[in-house]
Amino acid sequence: MMVPLSWYMVLSLAVFTIGMIGFLTRKNIIIVFMSIELMLNAVNINLISLSHYLQDLRGHILAFFIIAVAAAEAAIGLAIIIAVFRNKATAHVDEINEMQG
């Protein structure tokens, strides 16, 4: 029994919507980065499901590139968050309004 493609699209839409709402409403920078990761994972769900449906490997390959970019973004983002937290002693986006100390 195969899972219909529309179920994957609905799942991807739900995950992307949760990520978008988290990105737009939260003030903690860690949660903002987690929301960006959710949106990237929603795109990966779409790519993999459509790639499987169309019997084409290009979606799988692109998903691997997105995973690599997301890992690099998480590592660099965490380093920036730690540097900002050491200087400003806050992790709220609203309180970090300039890059200069």
Strand content: under 5%
Tally of individual domains: 1
Per DSSP E runs of 2 or more residues, the count of β-strands stands at: 0
The first-to-last residue Cα distance is 59 Å
Order of helices and strands: HHH
State the helical fraction: over 70%
Quickly count the helices. Answer: 3
Mean pLDDT: 88
- How large is the radius of gyration? 17 Å
Residue runs with pLDDT of under 50 for 5 or more positions: none
Spatial shape: elongated
Query: Class by helix and strand content?
Result: mainly alpha
The CATH class designation is: Mainly Alpha
**What's the architecture, going by CATH?**
Orthogonal Bundle
Characterise the protein shown here.
It is a single chain. The protein has 101 residues and is mainly α. Helices cover 77% and strands 0% of the residues. The relative contact order is 0.13. The mean pLDDT is 88.
Features:
mainly alpha; Helix Hairpins; 3 helices; 0% strand
Task: Describe, in short, the structure shown.
The chain is an all-alpha fold and 101 residues long. The chain has helices at residues 5-25, 29-54, 58-88. The chain has one domain (5-88): Orthogonal Bundle (Helix Hairpins).
